[in-house]
Amino acid sequence: MKRTGVVLRRLVTSEGNASVLLFLRSSGPLWVRLPGASRGSVRFGGAAEPLVWGAYQLQRTRTDVYLREAEVKEDFWKLRSMPNACRQALHWCSLLSRNLLRGFPYDSLLPLLYWSTAALVGGAPPGVVSVRFLWRWLDDWGMAPELERCSLCGDPAGKVGLTDAGPVCPACGAETAADIAGFGGYVRSPSAQPPEELAGRGNDAEKIAEWMEHFFELNR
């Protein structure tokens, strides 16, 4: 079978064999074997590296799935020279590999990952892009928190406390943790490229993204 997708993880054994976790359209996450790949007997070049997008020809046996051919479509190679952006993209891959069921399709998350990674390559602040990535993932699963209003009184919110119930404004008794102003519009934007007003909000973004990950785990 032939599928398109992205490499989330790569594992190599002491014997020189490799396995990659592919996130595939129509098939979801799937572990695929590459016998002898690290010994050079079977070579796929960069097509088997994390964050590389490609078209993969797979062969399924009774017990395993093997990679027979691979064609790179997008390698996002520039990320390798952008340490913070690369770490962020790899962190998304780690979150996906931990939270998605094997063999279950999540086709709506593939373009989200692709365009979020493209925004990082374009120089967007990693923390800010991560807020959108996590919120849209949560929204896809029906668990996204409010990012424009206090979750208790409903008033428009700026500086808020980040609680298990959602953002809570100081008037409702919360201790301020971050300023969410502007993020509500960005996470709903069709473009992963953040507006200029959020460019210098890395500290707020990191706190919101960390809270989102907690919120994600809390509501799974």
Total count of strands: 8
By CATH, the architecture of the largest domain is named Up-down Bundle
- Output mean pLDDT: 91
N-to-C SSE string, H for helix and E for strand: EEEEEHHHEEEHH
- Low-confidence region ranges: none
Shape, per Cα inertia axes? elongated
Number of distinct helices: 5
Largest sheet data:
5 strands, antiparallel
Short description:
It holds the Pfam family RecO_C. The protein has helices at 83-99, 109-121, 126-140, 183-187, 202-219; strands at residues 2-12, 18-24, 28-34, 53-60, 65-74, 159-163, 166-168, 178-179. It has 220 residues and is α+β, with helices and mostly antiparallel strands.
Descriptive overview:
The protein has 220 residues and is of the alpha+beta class. The chain folds into two domains: 1-72, Beta Barrel (OB fold (Dihydrolipoamide Acetyltransferase, E2P)), CATH 2.40.50; 79-217, de novo design (two linked rop proteins) (Up-down Bundle). The chain has five helices and eight strands, in the order E-E-E-E-E-H-H-H-E-E-E-H-H. A five-stranded antiparallel beta sheet has the order 3-2-1-4-5. The protein has a three-stranded antiparallel beta sheet with strand order 7-6-8, with helices on one face. Helix 3 packs parallel to helix 5. The model has no long low-confidence stretch (mean pLDDT 91).
Topology overview:
Blueprint: E1 2-12, E2 18-24, E3 28-34, E4 53-60, E5 65-74, H1 83-99, H2 109-121, H3 126-140, E6 159-163, E7 166-168, E8 178-179, H4 183-187, H5 202-219
Antiparallel strand pairs: 1-2, 1-4, 2-3, 4-5, 6-7, 6-8
GO biological process, one term: double-strand break repair
Pfam family, one: RecO_C
Organism: Jonquetella anthropi DSM 22815
